[in-house]
Amino acid sequence: MRTHQGFLVPALVVALGLVAGSLSPAAIAQEAPPIPQASDTDLALARAIFKQLIEINTTDTPQGNVTTATTAMEKRFLDAGFPAADVHLVGPNPRKQNLVVRLRAAGTPTEKPVLFLCHVDVVQALRSDWTTDPFQFVEKDGYYYGRGTQDMKDSDAVLVATFLRLHKEGYKPKRDLILALTADEEGGKSNGASWLVNTHRELVDAAYVINPDSGGVELDQGRAVMADVEATEKVYSDFQIMATDRGGHSSLPRPDNAIYELTSALNKLAAYTFPFELNAVTRTYFKNLSDRETGQTAADMQAILATPPDLAAAERLSAEPSFNANFRTTCVATRLDAGDANNALPQMAQAIVNCRIFPGHSPEEIRQQLVALFGDPNLTVKYVSDAGAVADTAPDRIAISPPPPIPAVFTPLTQITDAIWPGTPVTPMMENGASDSIYFAQAGIPSYGYSAVALERDDVRAHGRDERLPVDSFTKALNFFYAFAKALGDE
After folding, report:
1. In this structure, are 248 and 109 located in the same domain?
2. Are residues 463 and 350 in the same domain?
3. Closest-CA residue to 121 (of 143, 145, 97, 137)
4. What secondary structure letter does DSSP report for 252?
5. How far apart are CA 342 and CA 291, in angstroms?
6. How many Cα atoms occupy the beta-carbon half-sphere of 69 within 13 Å?
7. Do 246 and 180 belong together in one domain?
8. In this structure, what CATH number is given to the domain that contains residue 372?
């Protein structure tokens, strides 16, 4: 399955000028118009929206409610004068309502719309784990703190503010622009992107999708190194690893009790490294990145591109988690549960192992590899669906293929990026996580992942403690998407 990626990605690279040089940064800078800067009023509005979204708990928990957030944004659009017919609050249940807003073209458009896809749900965060309240918007030391500041209420706020600004200015695009704010990308039974594609295709049908849930600008100690556009992504999969035992009195311990069986398996997993791999996307990414690096890092990146690759160089690079995730499938235990009483041997112990599967491999293939790795007939390894259903086998699906390059997307994307981060090359990359792009790709709608958010490589805190976003990154993303939305709308 990886062979057809090798056909598409070189075309993407040429389109971005990374090989052919047809869109060199110098030429782009000469052609690109000046980028409008957000006014103090624009920034204040975007920041207020950001604060409002952060302080609404949108986790898939009894305390969370996506509809509270989407209803709040619906009110902003209606209060701003968007026609009610262009503002749709729809979803499968009262707590998981998705908001779809349309900025209408002047007259009858000849081209299909452009869809901006943003999820508003976030992963759980506990106050006891954080130095600030995760559901309080805090600005300090040049950062915004709060759950979702990186993933992805920053982009939600930027796109809501952008649509409101365009409407206030009376902007009329040549084609409709659509914004979707959706539920359950992070998990849950009501994934909004999938639900909209399958039940309300007419609301989100588009020529292509811009998904700010991936891609962005890599910083190395403040220096912009790369602007990454998602060309493919890994496959997300959860597996339930379970050991069962007859249990018994804790005064009579046995080495084969359920917890020991499970921890033995997890220790094997922790010590195991999946094989090193490259595909056309990651090969292009590391080739372009090696030109920006120096010293041993640059030499190692060149060495892994050789035939055969230098595995010692790959091992050195793998010390950086983001590089390691680009080289292979990764699996890690994320949840544990065992026992019923402090004074009894456990009759059951289980773990959830989360895998991000390298393109070309299926969840079922990885499930079978885990079974072989553990080598324990007393353990079961089962697949857990996004909705939480447990099955003996996993799907055979594989990663999405890179979409074809569209100059109408990549020319303005590259021009505006160069205007904001001069000289920073745009390169295709593989998303190490997963996103809702897959549902649109499966429906035949190309999806391009780019957030225009600049983050230090070693300060990616999405899903983690004290999630934060540089204030400057938020401002630049706001400037980017205003210019980008207009450029796409004018096509």
Report:
1. no
2. no
3. 97
4. S
5. 57
6. 33
7. no
8. 3.30.70.360
Q: Are residues 106 and 242 in the same domain?
A: no
Contact 210, 114 (CB under 8 A): yes
CB 146 within 8 A of CB 137: yes
CATH number for 69: 3.40.630.10
**Residue 294: per-residue pLDDT:** 92
The verdict on residue 66 lying in a domain is yes
Q: Of 8, 19, 2, 123, which is closest to residue 425 (Cα–Cα)?
A: 19
| 17: number of Cβ within 10 Å | 19
Distance CA 276, CA 273 (A): 8
Predicted local distance difference test score (pLDDT) of residue 399: 73
Instruction: Say if residues 395 and 226 touch (Cβ distance below 8 Å).
Output: no
The residues, ordered by sequence, that sit 6+ positions from 489 with a Cβ below 8 Å of its Cβ are: 103, 105, 114, 166, 171, 173, 174, 175, 177
Does 120 reside within a domain? yes
Q: How far is CA 288 from CA 79, 214, 280, 293, 301, in A?
A: 46, 19, 12, 9, 10
The answer to whether the beta carbons of residues 482 and 37 sit under 8 Å apart is no
In terms of residues, how long is the chain? 491
**How far is 465 from 236, CA to CA, in rounded Å?**
22
49 and 188 co-located in one domain:
yes
Residue 201's φ and ψ, nearest 5 degrees, are: -55, -35
Task: List, in sequence order, every beta strand (DSSP E) within 9-112.
Answer: 87-90, 98-103
Query: Do β-strands 379-384 and 98-103 pair in parallel, antiparallel, or remain unpaired?
Result: unpaired
Q: What is the DSSP letter of 424?
A: P
Alpha-carbon distance 144 to 51, whole Å? 9
Instruction: Using the structure block, give the residue that is written with the tokens 């782009």.
Output: 28
Cβ atoms of residues 481 and 244 within 8 Å: no
Query: By residue range, what is the domain housing residue 80?
Result: 32-214+435-489
Whether 44 and 50 have beta carbons less than 8 Å apart is answered as: no
Structure tokens, 73: 């944004």
Determine, yes or no, domain membership for 27. no
* Beta-bridge partner residues of 382: 240
Cα–Cα distance measured from residue 383 to residue 236, given in angstroms and rounded to the nearest whole number = 11
Residue type, 457: R
Q: What is the mean pLDDT of each run of 10 residues along the chain (491 residues)?
A: 28 37 42 83 98 98 97 98 98 97 94 98 97 98 98 98 98 97 94 97 97 94 92 91 91 89 96 95 90 94 97 97 95 95 93 95 97 96 92 87 83 95 91 87 91 94 96 98 97 84
Domains in the chain, number = 2
